[in-house]
Each structure stands twice: as C-alpha cells, then as structure tokens.
C-alpha cells in the first residue's frame, strides 16, 4: 500500500464511529459467537480479532465498516 492509500484510509477511518475493544468483544458475545467462530464466519484472522479486543490494534477502514454493519443490524 502506498502513502496516498494510507492517507486516504486514515481519512475514511476518522469519519467512521469509534469502536472500543470492549464494544467489539461485547457485540461479538451478543451474537453468541466465540472468537474462533467469529473469525471463521467473517474471515478475520483470530489473532487480529484478539488484538482488537485487547486494544493492541484497531480495525482498519474495511474491517471497521464490516464490524459496524454487523453490529448495527
């Protein structure tokens, strides 16, 4: 990914509502899914999901959009 793509993605991410690690975990649990089941069902590597829920990484724009769609329907 080049520098302009990173800048564009950063701007998109800033315009999306924030998702805290606790919200991600709570919403996943509300769906009745384990980390493993969620990662398989939605194609998100389990280590990535764990990092989001622990707050060591934040979802990029594409995944943040996916999470927001899943959590608001």
TrEMBL record:
Residues 24-71 form the HTH cro/C1-type domain. This is HTH cro/C1-type domain-containing protein. It comes from the Bacteria. Gene3D superfamilies: lambda repressor-like DNA-binding domains. It comes from Candidatus Yonathbacteria bacterium RIFCSPLOWO2_01_FULL_47_33b. InterPro entries: Cro/C1-type_HTH (IPR001387), Lambda_DNA-bd_dom_sf (IPR010982). GO terms for molecular function: DNA binding. Pfam families: HTH_3. The lineage of its organism: Bacteria, Candidatus Yonathiibacteriota.
């Amino acid at each position: 990914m080049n520098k302009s793509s990173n800048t564009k993605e950063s701007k998109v991410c800033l315009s999306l509502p924030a998702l805290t690690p606790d919200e991600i975990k709570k919403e996943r649990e509300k769906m009745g899914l384990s980390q493993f089941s969620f990662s398989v069902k939605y194609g998100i590597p389990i280590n990535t999901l764990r990092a989001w829920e622990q707050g060591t990484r934040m979802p990029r724009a594409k995944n943040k959009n996916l999470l927001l769609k899943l959590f608001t329907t």
